[in-house]
Write a structure and sequence with these properties.
Order of helices and strands: EHEHEEHHHEHHHHE
Largest sheet: 4 strands, mixed
Helix content: 40-55%
Distance between the termini: 28 Å
Structural class: alpha+beta
Number of strands: 6
Pfam families: GST_N_2 (PF13409)
Strand content: 5-15%
Protein name: Glutathione S-transferase family protein
Shape: globular
Length: about 240
Protein backbone atom coordinates (compact mmCIF):
# COMPACT_ATOMS: atom_id res chain seq x y z
CA UNK A 1 0.00 0.00 0.00
CA UNK A 2 1.04 3.60 -0.64
CA UNK A 3 -0.09 6.43 1.63
CA UNK A 4 0.07 9.88 0.05
CA UNK A 5 0.52 12.65 2.59
CA UNK A 6 1.68 16.26 2.86
CA UNK A 7 3.99 18.09 5.28
CA UNK A 8 4.14 16.35 8.64
CA UNK A 9 4.46 19.68 10.46
CA UNK A 10 1.03 20.83 9.32
CA UNK A 11 -1.04 18.06 7.73
CA UNK A 12 -3.42 16.92 10.43
CA UNK A 13 -5.50 14.83 8.03
CA UNK A 14 -2.39 12.97 6.85
CA UNK A 15 -1.36 12.13 10.41
CA UNK A 16 -4.47 10.08 11.16
CA UNK A 17 -4.18 7.09 8.78
CA UNK A 18 -0.37 7.23 8.96
CA UNK A 19 -0.57 6.75 12.71
CA UNK A 20 -2.94 3.80 12.37
CA UNK A 21 -0.59 2.08 9.92
CA UNK A 22 2.44 2.70 12.14
CA UNK A 23 0.88 1.79 15.47
CA UNK A 24 -0.51 -1.46 14.13
CA UNK A 25 2.67 -2.39 12.30
CA UNK A 26 1.12 -2.49 8.82
CA UNK A 27 3.73 -2.17 6.04
CA UNK A 28 3.22 0.73 3.62
CA UNK A 29 5.13 3.10 1.38
CA UNK A 30 4.96 6.78 2.25
CA UNK A 31 4.64 9.31 -0.58
CA UNK A 32 5.05 12.86 0.75
CA UNK A 33 4.07 15.71 -1.56
CA UNK A 34 4.90 19.04 0.16
CA UNK A 35 2.23 21.72 0.12
CA UNK A 36 2.68 24.54 -2.35
CA UNK A 37 2.89 28.21 -1.33
CA UNK A 38 -0.89 28.13 -0.78
CA UNK A 39 -3.35 25.34 -0.08
CA UNK A 40 -4.87 25.94 -3.52
CA UNK A 41 -1.57 25.77 -5.40
CA UNK A 42 -2.37 24.25 -8.82
CA UNK A 43 1.01 22.50 -9.09
CA UNK A 44 0.46 20.70 -5.79
CA UNK A 45 -3.07 19.72 -6.78
CA UNK A 46 -1.82 18.31 -10.09
CA UNK A 47 0.77 16.21 -8.26
CA UNK A 48 -1.80 14.86 -5.83
CA UNK A 49 -4.26 14.18 -8.66
CA UNK A 50 -1.99 11.35 -9.79
CA UNK A 51 -3.24 9.46 -6.72
CA UNK A 52 -6.75 10.74 -6.02
CA UNK A 53 -9.49 12.53 -7.99
CA UNK A 54 -10.25 14.59 -4.87
CA UNK A 55 -6.85 16.31 -5.20
CA UNK A 56 -6.43 16.29 -1.45
CA UNK A 57 -4.38 14.33 1.07
CA UNK A 58 -4.31 11.80 2.47
CA UNK A 59 -4.95 9.14 -0.13
CA UNK A 60 -4.27 5.42 0.05
CA UNK A 61 -3.42 3.36 -3.02
CA UNK A 62 -3.64 -0.41 -2.67
CA UNK A 63 -3.02 -1.94 -6.08
CA UNK A 64 -5.91 -0.90 -8.29
CA UNK A 65 -7.86 0.49 -5.32
CA UNK A 66 -7.66 4.15 -4.32
CA UNK A 67 -9.21 5.43 -1.09
CA UNK A 68 -9.19 9.03 0.07
CA UNK A 69 -10.27 10.95 3.18
CA UNK A 70 -8.79 10.05 6.56
CA UNK A 71 -11.80 8.26 7.98
CA UNK A 72 -12.48 6.28 4.78
CA UNK A 73 -8.83 5.21 4.70
CA UNK A 74 -8.95 4.06 8.32
CA UNK A 75 -12.12 2.07 7.62
CA UNK A 76 -10.43 0.44 4.61
CA UNK A 77 -7.36 -0.45 6.67
CA UNK A 78 -9.57 -1.99 9.37
CA UNK A 79 -11.52 -3.96 6.77
CA UNK A 80 -8.30 -5.16 5.14
CA UNK A 81 -6.85 -6.25 8.50
CA UNK A 82 -9.77 -7.68 10.50
CA UNK A 83 -7.29 -9.53 12.70
CA UNK A 84 -6.19 -6.20 14.20
CA UNK A 85 -8.25 -4.31 16.81
CA UNK A 86 -8.20 -1.05 14.87
CA UNK A 87 -11.75 -0.50 16.12
CA UNK A 88 -12.63 -1.69 19.64
CA UNK A 89 -13.84 -5.29 19.75
CA UNK A 90 -16.69 -4.54 22.16
CA UNK A 91 -19.85 -3.57 20.26
CA UNK A 92 -20.83 -0.69 22.52
CA UNK A 93 -17.28 0.68 22.58
CA UNK A 94 -17.03 0.37 18.80
CA UNK A 95 -20.31 2.24 18.34
CA UNK A 96 -19.07 5.09 20.51
CA UNK A 97 -15.68 5.09 18.79
CA UNK A 98 -17.26 5.43 15.35
CA UNK A 99 -19.62 8.15 16.58
CA UNK A 100 -16.89 10.32 18.09
CA UNK A 101 -14.64 9.82 15.07
CA UNK A 102 -17.43 11.03 12.80
CA UNK A 103 -17.98 14.00 15.12
CA UNK A 104 -14.28 14.80 15.04
CA UNK A 105 -14.32 14.52 11.26
CA UNK A 106 -17.17 16.99 10.75
CA UNK A 107 -16.99 19.37 13.71
CA UNK A 108 -14.78 21.72 15.73
CA UNK A 109 -14.25 24.23 12.92
CA UNK A 110 -13.57 27.10 15.33
CA UNK A 111 -10.64 25.25 16.89
CA UNK A 112 -9.32 24.14 13.50
CA UNK A 113 -9.41 27.70 12.16
CA UNK A 114 -7.95 29.49 15.16
CA UNK A 115 -5.36 26.83 16.04
CA UNK A 116 -3.95 25.15 12.92
CA UNK A 117 -1.77 22.11 13.51
CA UNK A 118 1.88 23.14 13.70
CA UNK A 119 4.35 20.86 15.45
CA UNK A 120 7.23 23.34 15.25
CA UNK A 121 6.07 25.84 17.87
CA UNK A 122 4.55 26.28 21.31
CA UNK A 123 2.54 29.49 21.72
CA UNK A 124 1.67 31.09 25.05
CA UNK A 125 -1.83 30.58 26.42
CA UNK A 126 -4.42 33.21 25.62
CA UNK A 127 -8.17 33.61 25.21
CA UNK A 128 -9.08 32.36 21.74
CA UNK A 129 -12.77 33.16 21.91
CA UNK A 130 -16.03 31.54 22.95
CA UNK A 131 -16.37 29.30 19.90
CA UNK A 132 -12.93 27.78 20.43
CA UNK A 133 -13.64 27.35 24.13
CA UNK A 134 -16.87 25.52 23.28
CA UNK A 135 -15.01 23.17 20.93
CA UNK A 136 -12.41 22.44 23.61
CA UNK A 137 -15.13 21.77 26.19
CA UNK A 138 -16.86 19.28 23.88
CA UNK A 139 -13.65 17.47 22.92
CA UNK A 140 -12.55 17.03 26.51
CA UNK A 141 -16.06 15.89 27.42
CA UNK A 142 -15.76 13.19 24.74
CA UNK A 143 -12.39 12.11 26.08
CA UNK A 144 -13.48 11.91 29.70
CA UNK A 145 -16.61 9.96 28.80
CA UNK A 146 -14.73 7.40 26.69
CA UNK A 147 -11.99 7.01 29.28
CA UNK A 148 -14.52 6.53 32.09
CA UNK A 149 -16.69 4.04 30.21
CA UNK A 150 -14.14 2.05 28.21
CA UNK A 151 -10.60 3.16 29.02
CA UNK A 152 -9.78 1.05 32.05
CA UNK A 153 -7.53 -1.34 30.12
CA UNK A 154 -4.94 1.22 29.06
CA UNK A 155 -4.04 4.87 28.55
CA UNK A 156 -6.17 5.53 25.46
CA UNK A 157 -9.82 6.36 24.85
CA UNK A 158 -10.84 2.69 24.70
CA UNK A 159 -7.97 1.26 26.70
CA UNK A 160 -5.69 0.12 23.89
CA UNK A 161 -4.77 2.38 20.99
CA UNK A 162 -7.48 2.46 18.31
CA UNK A 163 -8.71 4.40 15.30
CA UNK A 164 -10.34 6.89 17.67
CA UNK A 165 -6.97 7.89 19.10
CA UNK A 166 -5.57 8.41 15.60
CA UNK A 167 -8.52 10.63 14.70
CA UNK A 168 -8.03 12.79 17.79
CA UNK A 169 -4.22 12.90 17.62
CA UNK A 170 -4.06 16.21 15.69
CA UNK A 171 -6.27 17.84 18.34
CA UNK A 172 -3.92 16.57 21.04
CA UNK A 173 -1.05 18.35 19.26
CA UNK A 174 -3.04 21.58 19.05
CA UNK A 175 -3.64 21.57 22.79
CA UNK A 176 0.13 21.39 23.28
CA UNK A 177 1.02 23.90 20.57
CA UNK A 178 -1.36 26.54 21.91
CA UNK A 179 -0.81 25.88 25.64
CA UNK A 180 -4.47 25.08 26.25
CA UNK A 181 -5.24 24.25 29.88
CA UNK A 182 -6.81 20.82 30.33
CA UNK A 183 -8.39 18.80 33.09
CA UNK A 184 -6.19 15.99 34.51
CA UNK A 185 -7.86 13.19 32.51
CA UNK A 186 -7.51 15.06 29.22
CA UNK A 187 -3.94 16.16 29.96
CA UNK A 188 -2.92 12.57 30.69
CA UNK A 189 -4.57 11.44 27.47
CA UNK A 190 -2.70 14.05 25.39
CA UNK A 191 0.55 12.82 26.94
CA UNK A 192 -0.33 9.21 26.12
CA UNK A 193 -1.01 9.98 22.46
CA UNK A 194 2.17 11.99 22.06
CA UNK A 195 4.19 9.27 23.77
CA UNK A 196 3.33 6.61 21.20
CA UNK A 197 6.17 5.37 19.02
CA UNK A 198 4.21 6.32 15.91
CA UNK A 199 3.64 9.92 16.95
CA UNK A 200 7.24 10.36 18.06
CA UNK A 201 8.45 9.16 14.65
CA UNK A 202 6.06 11.53 12.87
CA UNK A 203 7.11 14.52 14.95
CA UNK A 204 10.82 13.80 14.54
CA UNK A 205 10.37 13.77 10.77
CA UNK A 206 8.23 16.92 10.92
CA UNK A 207 10.91 18.89 12.72
CA UNK A 208 13.44 17.91 10.07
CA UNK A 209 11.31 19.26 7.21
CA UNK A 210 12.71 22.26 5.29
CA UNK A 211 9.33 23.69 4.26
CA UNK A 212 7.30 26.56 5.70
CA UNK A 213 3.59 27.05 4.96
CA UNK A 214 2.87 30.65 5.88
CA UNK A 215 -0.90 30.21 6.30
CA UNK A 216 -0.24 27.90 9.27
CA UNK A 217 2.39 30.15 10.85
CA UNK A 218 0.52 32.46 13.21
CA UNK A 219 1.93 35.93 13.77
CA UNK A 220 1.99 35.84 17.56
CA UNK A 221 4.56 35.35 20.36
CA UNK A 222 6.27 31.99 20.61
CA UNK A 223 7.35 30.24 23.81
CA UNK A 224 9.35 27.47 22.14
CA UNK A 225 10.83 27.12 18.68
CA UNK A 226 11.64 23.48 17.96
CA UNK A 227 13.28 24.33 14.63
CA UNK A 228 15.79 27.06 15.53
CA UNK A 229 17.62 26.80 12.22
CA UNK A 230 14.56 27.81 10.20
CA UNK A 231 13.21 31.33 9.89
CA UNK A 232 9.46 31.75 10.18
CA UNK A 233 9.61 34.02 7.12
CA UNK A 234 11.51 31.52 5.00
CA UNK A 235 9.89 30.95 1.61
CA UNK A 236 8.32 27.63 0.71
CA UNK A 237 10.76 25.41 -1.18
Amino acid sequence: MKLIIANKTYSSWSLRPWLVLKQFGIPFEEVLIPFGPTMDDPGWKRAVADYTPARKVPSLVDGAIAVWDSLAIIEYIAETHPELPIWPRDKAARALARSICAEMHSSFTALRGACPMNLAWVHPARDRGEAVAADIARITEIWRDARQRFGAGGDFLFGDFSAADAMFAPVATRFTTYSIALDPVSAAYVEAVQSTAGFKAWREAALAEPWIVSVDELDEPVLTDFRPNLSRSRAQT
